[in-house]
């Protein structure tokens, strides 16, 4: 959730190298999952995490440190107290695979949210 406004339209999330006009019906761009988990993070978090070593990750994401999960397989971890930057992680539907993410936009075209479809519902 980026802003608390109703979603008026949805579009496939793309990166600069994606060419949506080259997709065949039923195809999509998405992200690969190789650990059974997906995540949402903005670019500032990605840059911060790129500087971490394995000990930093173990300390921040130790599952024994989390209270009972409100949704199984989900957690939201603040990784930079100063900025409030966080990572949202969830178990990925059928596990490893390739999954599309969609951008929900408000009536005025602002980003309201992002949703990854883990392809578990027909």
How are the secondary structure elements laid out?
Layout: E1 9-12, E2 31-33, E3 37-40, H1 43-50, H2 54-60, E4 74-80, E5 85-91, E6 97-99, E7 101-105, E8 111-116
Antiparallel strand pairs: 1-7, 2-6, 3-5, 4-5, 7-8
Provide an overview of this structure.
By secondary structure, the protein is mostly beta strands. Helix content is 12%, strand content 32%. It has 2 domains: 1-16 and 30-35 and 94-122, no CATH class; 37-91, no CATH class. The strands form 3 sheets. It has a 3-stranded antiparallel beta sheet, with no helix packed on it. Strand 4 and strand 5 (85-91) form a beta hairpin. The chain is globular.
Q: Which spans of ≥5 residues are poorly predicted at pLDDT below 50?
A: none
- SSE string, helices as H and strands as E: EEEHHEEEEE
Distance between the termini: 24 Å
Q: Regarding quaternary structure, how should these chains be classified?
A: single chain
Structural class by sheet pairing and helices: mainly beta
How big a fraction of the residues is strand?
Answer: 25-35%
Treating each run of at least 4 consecutive H or I residues as one helix, how many helices? 2
């Amino acid at each position: 959730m980026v802003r608390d406004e109703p979603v008026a339209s949805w579009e496939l999330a793309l990166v600069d190298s994606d060419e949506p006009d080259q997709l065949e019906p039923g195809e999509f761009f998405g992200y690969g999952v190789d650990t059974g988990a997906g995540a949402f993070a903005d670019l500032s978090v990605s840059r911060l995490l790129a500087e971490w070593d394995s000990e930093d990750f173990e300390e921040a994401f130790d599952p024994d440190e989390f209270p009972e999960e409100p949704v199984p397989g989900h957690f939201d971890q603040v990784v930079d107290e100063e900025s409030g930057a966080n990572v949202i992680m969830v178990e990925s539907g059928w596990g490893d695979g390739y999954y599309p993410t969609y951008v929900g936009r408000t009536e005025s075209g602002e980003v309201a949210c992002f949703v990854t479809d883990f392809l578990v519902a027909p």
